[in-house]
Fold this protein.
Amino acid sequence: MRYGGNTSCVSVAIPHHDPILFDLGTGLRYFGDCHSGREPFRGTCLLSHVHWDHIQGLPFFTPLLQDGAEVDVYAPVQDDGISVEQLFGATIKPPLFPIHYAHLPGTVRFHEVDRSEFTIGDARVVARPIPHIGPTVGYRLTYRESSVAYLSDHQMPADGSFRVGAGARELCAGVDLLIHDAQYTTAEFARKRDWGHCTIEYAVWLAAEAGVGTLALFHHDPSHHDDVMDILVRDAVECGRKLGVDVIAAREGLCVAVES
């Protein structure tokens, strides 16, 4: 009730700039409610990967019900040769959904990324593959001197050691705000070491190792109710204090001002 129950969706607001989203989980529906009734929506999504919990909000994004709406989706290249556009077309259609996503009045355009660098308006984007289950990328978004990195699903070494790949390290290095997978306790990771995620302790260590300003713990385990989360966050904040990193917990409705 306090941390929230929607799946992954983060919005980035840049002055005088179309919205940029990280992922299209069920939180997208609430973001869309804030834009209903305005001028046709135009924005961009940086999609980390195509697991259900990161894409299932798209058909419920009400701005796409308006003619002239436009969404550009950047997503990782798939291993099996199917395009990301084909993948969405194969899942958001009858009988799984009442209509095909392409029949929505708004327009969705797909762009595939891997080890990529590009711009969205005045913002610079770096995408790098990171370990998870299936093709997955993390993103670093920079506007002027302010930067945010988004690594929502990040597999730490299965042996429990604290090591990090070159791509993830590059994305995180010196970033102002790091939004990072922090799903498991150490005990939970021992049972789920190949499920594609990491421990809270690993996320704090990586933030300190990379010289991050603020770490936002993200992708909370759905079995962690609010009281459990309070304890885990308290311990993470104390650990971060010892390592010189400000630690916060992502929760629905949280707004963070990012300034260098």
